[in-house]
Structures are given as structure tokens and as C-alpha cells.
Amino acid sequence: MTKKMVFVDTSKCTGCKACSVACKEWNGLSAEKTQLVTSYQAQKDFTPKTWTYMTFIETYENQTMNFLMRKAQCFHCADPACLKACSSKAITQTESGFVVIDRKKCIGCGYCAENCPFGVPKVDQALQKSFKCTGCIDRVENNLKPACVQTCQPGALEFGEYDMLLGQAKKRLTEIRKTHPKSQLYGEKEMGGTTYLYLLLDRPEVYGLPANPTVPLSLTLWKDVIRPVGGIAVGGAAAAVVIGAFANFLKGAYRSGDDQAKMTASSQRDHKKREKD
Fold first, then answer.
1. 11 touches 180 (CB < 8 A)
2. 102-126: per-residue pLDDT in tens?
3. What is the pTM of this model?
4. Mapped to the 3 state alphabet, what secondary structure does 5-34 carry?
5. Contact 5, 162 (CB under 8 A)
6. Which terminus of the chain has fewer CB atoms gathered within 10 Å of its CB, N or C?
7. Is 215 left (phi over 0), alpha (psi -120 to 50) or beta?
């Protein structure tokens, strides 16, 4: 299957929340009690039972109020931090670009949640499993649109081939910049390129998104450097001990008893000689 994309055009979004309802219905996620966070936003964050929700931001410029709305869900990164962090190999990436969790393998360690720059995966403490948006991979692999895209009435969500939609997104950006000069595409380069690409009307920070999301350096070092090297020998520590011992030998740290005695006697003679002088 070729690489896919979901293009999120926030300029067309009306904040109806139908995408969130469709997600819950298709995935069998139960409703949760919510309360007003700000403006029309009633969901503060992701939960094991809420994989997508709407954010509402009100900005004021030149005595004009701008209503910025965004559908929040997993970005399905090309270079996913959650996949690198997973200790049980429960997270994989499909050919179409979606990042999915195999809950049979998931042990609920929470490393995916700790390392995701967007704070997407959430651990169900009772089940000891991580949950997040699947991109409706079960629908996609059966030639259906993701549930959120299928239900979006204003056409703010589009699904299709990655290269084709990317071209459309860039054309749309050119049009929108005529009225919203701060507009930009978010996800074209971030995290290696994301399956969910956004057209934002303002800077990412205004929407509560990181300007330059990255895989944590500590995770990159562990996964790409330390762990592979450690697997070459019987425990990387053993190799380190051997190398350290050899280095110390070259420096003269290890000597026989006779050699040590000779060195001590020589040192004492030099000391007495300096005292006489």
C-alpha cells in the first residue's frame, strides 16, 4: 500500500466535534464526563478512551478576534518517538504511514507516552495498556476513509495519496496566506513528515503545538548508539571493562610486585636526593 495522508485544513473547520464522535463510535470508545476548559473546548487532553478532540483558541489582533480550531489526534510521524521508545516491540509503522499499537504485546510501560513530543499515547492503568489514534487502519486497509474524515461535513479533512494531497495542501496554503499571512503547513518536515498534515492559520505555538518537535536525544542515543553497540559483545559493559583494562595497562596502572617495589625504591631515592640538594 502506498503512503497516505490526512490533510487537516483548519481554515474550513467549524468545530462541530463530529470527528471526535465518529472516532468513539467506530472504535467502540465509551463517553467520558467532561467540563468546560476554555471557550468551547470541553476536552483538556487525550485519554485511553478519547483519541481525538477539538481545541479552541481565541486570539485578538487589531481589535479583531480570531477563532482558531484544531482537531487533535496522533500525528503518525514518519520518525515516531513512540516506536523507538517501545520496549516490547508493540508499536509498528504500516506502509501507508500509520503508527499502531499491538495491545497484545503492549505491557503498559509508558515509555511511548513519556517520549512523544505531542503527548499523545495514554496508559490505561487498570489494563496496563497504551492507547492512541490508530488512523482507522482497519478501515484504510479495506479502502475506506478514516472515520473522522468520512464524517467531516465542511471538508476540513481530506484523505488520499501522500504526494497528491501534499501538492493540494501547498496550493491551499498559497490561497489562505492572502488573508492569513501567518499561515503555514505543519507536519511536512516535523518528525520526518507526519501522516496528518495541518494547515494552521497562525504559529504552531498559538495552537499549543511545539515549534520544532524532535525525538528526545536520550532516546536516540539509547536506541541508535548504546543499545546496538551493547549487543555486539556479551553485554556492552564487558567490552568496556576489557577496553578500560587495556588502556590502564598501557598507562602503567598494572605492574608486578617486583616492578612496583623497584618503582617505590627509585621514588624514595629521588626524594632524598632532592632534599640534599
1. yes
2. 999 999 999 999 999 999 999 999 9
3. 0.80
4. EEEEECCCCCCCCHHHHHHHHHHCCCCCCC
5. yes
6. C
7. beta
Helix ranges, 73-226 (H): 81-85, 111-115, 137-140, 147-151, 162-176, 217-221
For 14-57, the pLDDT digits (tens) are 999 999 999 999 999 999 999 999 889 999 999 999 999 999 99
SS3 content of the chain, % helix, strand, coil (to 5): 35, 20, 45
Q: Locate cell 478512551: which residue?
A: 49
Residue range 217-229, pLDDT digits in tens: 878 776 666 655 5
State the burial class of residue 222 (Cβ atoms within 10 Å of its Cβ: 0-12, 13-18, 19+). Answer: middle
Amino acid at 9: D
β-strand 129-131 against 157-161: which pairing, if any?
A: unpaired
Cell, residue 277:
640538594
Nearest to 196 by CA among 74, 65, 32, 48: 74
Residues in the chain: 277
Q: 239 falls in which pLDDT band (50, 70, 90)?
A: very low
